[in-house]
Amino acid sequence: MATNPMHQFQVHRIGPEIKIAGIDLSFTNASLFMLLSAVAICGLLFLGTKEKKIIPGKFQLISEIFYNFIAKMISDTAGSKAKPYFPFIFSLFMFVLFCNMLGMLPYSFTVTSHIIVTLMLAIFIFIAVTIIGFLKHGFGYLKLFVPSGVPVILLPLITVIEIISYLSRPVSLSVRLFANMMAGHTMLKVFGGFVISLGMLGGWLPLGFSVALTGLEILVAFLQAYVFAILTCIYLNDALNLHH
Amino acid sequence: MVDLENFKNRLKIAKNKQKNSSKTVGNNRNSSSMGSAFKLSTDLVAHVVVGTIIGFILDSWFDTKPWLIIIFFFLGSVAGILNVIKTARQMQEKE
Q1: Range(s) of the domain holding residue A179
Q2: DSSP string, A195-207
Q3: Domain count of chain A?
């Protein structure tokens, strides 16, 4: 069982079974790692903001780097109007980043390699952005589907295409994160299995690949969190500053 | 506050150094272009998939199998390609 590369994605219950109104609400390893990443984020930021020094310590420096990184990303992509949404995007980025990074530890569980988790995040963003768009622009938000400067004959076709492109946002957002995390972790496990099965004679080559892939996976883990956050900013920008 | 003055000077020097080294800028662009590559590839697939799903749902609503699923598959492909062109153009403008 341990050599099965998909075994690492199995969700299993920890502790007693909890059922409320027919829905299974038991505490699983997925919940454990979500909780762990939330605790890790809170711990890091608590340590970082405990002593406010002019010359920052390690934790303060890391927290400030994260803060500046997200603040710059929001002002670059969505403008100053998106400032009130900073806490949301910051927590989103930190949650995805910490889930990805905790998944890189051996024997851990990668929460973001399950499509249901990423899809829920993406659908939440999608619905929130749509509501913000309608609140800010009223029915004028529907102009997003009718680009200006298009001949009247082509207009119905373009509108349908724009609607497809709007609806595909949560799909591409969630599938990107889920597929990258799952593919990467499966690949690591497969190369790990090669090391065992080829033994002392031929196992060194896949071992080297494993080391290289681990580095690549850490890069991908960061990059996917970054892409997730920056695309949220881009969608927010569409909703706040309507121009097409 | 001699210490603070000293720190200010050191900060200024460090900031100048950071400005002069173009290495960090190049590195940053590299990782963000890898991000755009991920975005482009999944966007193309997602548009086709969503178009096909819409076609499938409409087909079962209006009982017109298999026409709408074919039409929406092609519309989804068109939307995906248009989106890639649009994103690529935006990336070009940025540079």
Answers
A1: 7-240
A2: HHHHHHHHTHHHH
A3: 1
Q: Is residue A60 part of a domain?
A: yes
pTM of the prediction? Answer: 0.84
Residues of chain B contacting residue A176, judged by C-beta atoms under 8 Å apart: 38-39, 42
pLDDT tens per residue across span A195-230 = 888 888 888 899 999 999 999 999 999 999 999 999
Residue A98's Cβ-count burial label (10 Å; 0-12, 13-18, 19+) is buried
* Residues in B touching A177 (Cβ below 8 Å): none
Please state the ipTM of this predicted complex. Answer: 0.77
* H or E element in which residue A43 lies: helix A29-50
Confidence of residue A142 (pLDDT cuts 50, 70, 90): confident
Contact A161 B35 (CB under 8 A): no
Searching chain A, which residue's CA lies closest to the CA of residue B50? A168
Is residue A1 very low, low, confident or very high in pLDDT (cuts 50, 70, 90)?
very low
| A226 contacts in chain B (CB < 8 Å) | 31-32, 35
As a whole number of angstroms, the distance between CA A220 and CA B20 comes to 28
DSSP letter string over A205-226? Answer: HHHHHHHHHHHHHHHHHHHHHH
Angstrom distance (rounded) from CA A178 to CA A184: 10
Tokens representing A148 are 């200006």
For residue A140, give the nearest of A244, A242, A234, A233 by alpha carbon: A242
Residue B32 has pLDDT above 80, yes or no: no
Measured between CB atoms, does B56 come within 8 Å of chain A?
Answer: no
- pLDDT score for A34: 93
For residue A2, is it within any domain? no
Answer yes or no: is A1 within a domain: no
Alpha carbon distance A221, A105 (integer Å) = 12
B7 and A55: CB-CB below 8 Å?
yes
